[in-house]
Design a protein that fits this description.
79% helix; 2 domains; homodimer; 11 helices; mainly alpha; globular; DNA-binding
Chain lengths: 203, 203
DNA sequence: AAATTTTTTAATCAAATGATTAATACACGA
DNA sequence: TCGTGTATTAATCATTTGATTAAAAAATTT
């Protein structure tokens, strides 16, 4: 009954996690076979259970990581009372586009798994950052009392995140090459701020 | 070797398709068990294969339907040389938000499956509507020669579609109720047009 | 009504899949 | 170097899952 790992072999454990990151985010939980992960990691299948007990447990570790990447910085940014709407949007756009260019699979992966299993992540997210109480939310309500601030939250996230979700489709129908896609995403960092301000000031 | 269905029993075949629509769009291809579909349809598992040969074949029928719903009307709309940018955006927003309010699972489902298997849908979509040659694309290039029209395509689709993809998340962190969500989506039909024009005119 | 075709069911198969086990290899302090 | 705990492997298990089969039931035709 060997189960404790008092002395962790960083190398093997990390190899498995790295493989799991790749396969899980690429294919999602349901389509991922533990054998795929083992093969990708170049290890014996049994080692996966030796180090992580189960597919489920390993998955939770990975998706929490990815959720942290996807939502980790947005909380502090929108909570900051000392920055303007414009600054917040600029920070969010720049940070997330940089992040997502290196991790383009994350949004579809995370949002998909949240939708498949909302209860699982309910407590985890809910407590962390309540958007409704954020400085950004209040600032938006003050600037445009006639429009529900949630609209602008959707707009901001949509402008930043959607291109990464829609990219496979757009690549299919326009033949958009990977390089030009990356260039477009970088342009958006600057444009989104301008667009967002324009939407704020729209009649 | 009973395999031909010369006289189709609409009722049973349609029951299976209806169940397949529900389960596939809710959970995706990989997470769907043919037994789930059979149970949802209230039929014997073997009937699924009797009518549709395989899970794969049934899936293709369903996702083609859903892609038709998601993309079917956008082609003619953006190809129309006789309407302005504003009119096109308004038509797209109104049509898709109405459609997606009744079918909120479609975007994540379709975009997810496209990403999982781009080759499968390559020919199917590519030929259908080449956005790059659309009237909208040309109009956008004329109106804002300084900005890649693809940005505005992303913006339009993001404003319309993203709220439906991000809804599970937003519901989690704001407790947004289903009813208010629907009301928000309806508001967007009118707002998106204004926002889009504002973005077009942004400095 | 008899014969034929179509639809439905229960039972079963074969492959895939998550997980476990028992044995072996390895590391390292006593 | 021996012994003990750790890491790794090959083999195997139990379940799930997509699919098939053979028989029964229902519908349709003759």
């Amino acid at each position: 009954m060997a189960k404790a790992k008092i002395k962790a072999d960083i190398s093997t454990e990390e190899k498995i996690k790295e493989a799991a990151r790749k396969v899980f985010t690429q294919k999602g939980y349901a389509a991922t076979r533990t054998r795929d992960i083992a093969e990708e990691a170049g290890i014996n299948l049994a080692l996966l259970n030796y180090y992580f007990r189960s597919k489920e447990k390993l998955f939770e570790i990975i998706i929490l990581e990815k959720m942290q990447i996807l939502f980790g910085k947005i909380g502090p940014t929108i909570m900051n009372e000392g920055t303007s709407i414009e600054e917040k949007v600029e920070l969010v756009a720049e940070h997330y586009i940089d992040t997502l260019v290196s991790n383009p699979d994350i949004p579809l992966f995370v949002l998909g798994e949240i939708k498949n299993n909302p209860d699982k992540f309910a407590k985890l997210i809910k407590t962390k950052t309540n958007i409704t109480n954020s400085a950004l939310f209040r600032q938006l309500a003050e600037r445009r009392p006639d429009i529900d601030p949630l609209h602008f939250i959707f707009n901001m996230l949509g402008l930043v995140i959607f291109p990464f979700i829609g990219k496979p489709l757009i690549q299919l129908i326009t033949g958009l090459e990977q390089q030009k896609a990356a260039a477009l995403m970088n342009e958006r960092k600057r444009l989104i701020k301008t667009w967002f301000v324009a939407m704020l000031e729209a009649p």
